[in-house]
Design a protein that fits this description.
6 helices; DNA-binding; Multidrug-efflux Transporter Regulator, Chain: A, Domain 2; homodimer; 2 domains; about 140 residues; two-stranded antiparallel sheet
DNA sequence: TCTTGACCTTCCCATCATGTCAACCCCATA
DNA sequence: TATGGGGTTGACATGATGGGAAGGTCAAGA
């Protein structure tokens, strides 16, 4: 049994000690064994679990998804369809967010190309943000 | 003087009353006039300011950028270069974030196509998240 | 005139994932 | 034994937004 401290577990997994404790507090990982002085000591299985979480987080999965994925990982009678469903939903979310950000970037980039970027105060970017809609008191989108 | 309540200002600008008060509390907009009973009443200029903020937020600008953009909007001796610089920096951030999310989506999508998605427990997605690295206690990547 | 419902006010708490900071305890080594 | 580098808990912050409670105010209908 190679038990390691939280610092060593952090270095082995790339998850900060703060986050390891946080995962424990929200029930994402089980509480590790403690020695008399109260120190947490992590087993190889604990390390594997932390690695799993870190990889899932690197793929952008939220904690709730990770919780379900961990449950499926442990459930040997799972169906891969369940896993795939979670993953596909997340892929759709990632693509939607990416597309939204890309669209913002596109729109703003168009404005910047129209902006001279010199010492003159005239700026199409500000014009677009503050159109002189005289008399109209509502935002037309 | 067409003064309107916070609800009407919200409907005119698409900014929730909650957020309007929040913008005031963090100094993003100036405090509007109040009547004896303490109710906020917004002028057409206030409405314009809120529209500006909403459009900037629709482009993903953080509050700090919006603060600077509002200052430049009011400064008639501004140079368009200052505005453009803020916008270009934000474009770069948007593109970077979009690319990051897209990369996550790509990686996960590749895994999902390899997953049968049937009743079998075997799943390449879980395999990728939990590689059987026997004996190795660290996360390789 | 009284009630009712819609609106206003302030203040606190929650999200999501992560970091910082402080106060304090424990242990090994120079 | 002093020092440094761990460990522990807890509180607070981010950024942008939402929810809700507790209480004051206003306008319209009975």
């Amino acid at each position: 049994m190679t038990l390691v401290t939280i610092k060593q577990a952090s270095e082995a997994t790339g998850v900060s000690p703060k986050m390891i404790r946080h995962y424990e507090s929200i029930g994402l990982i089980k509480a590790p064994t403690r020695t008399e002085n109260g120190y947490r000591y992590y087993s190889p299985e604990d390390i594997s679990g932390l690695c799993f979480i870190r990889r899932a987080r690197d793929l952008g999965f939220p904690f709730e998804d990770i919780r379900q994925l961990l449950a499926l990982l442990r459930d040997k009678r799972r169906s891969s369809a369940e896993v795939k469903q979670i993953a596909l939903r997340h892929v759709a979310e990632l693509e939607a967010k990416a597309a939204q950000l890309a669209a913002m970037g596109e729109a703003l980039k168009r404005l910047t190309t129209a902006c001279p970027g010199n010492s003159s105060p005239h700026c199409p970017i500000l014009d677009a943000l503050d159109p002189p809609q005289l008399g109209k008191l509502w935002c037309n989108s």
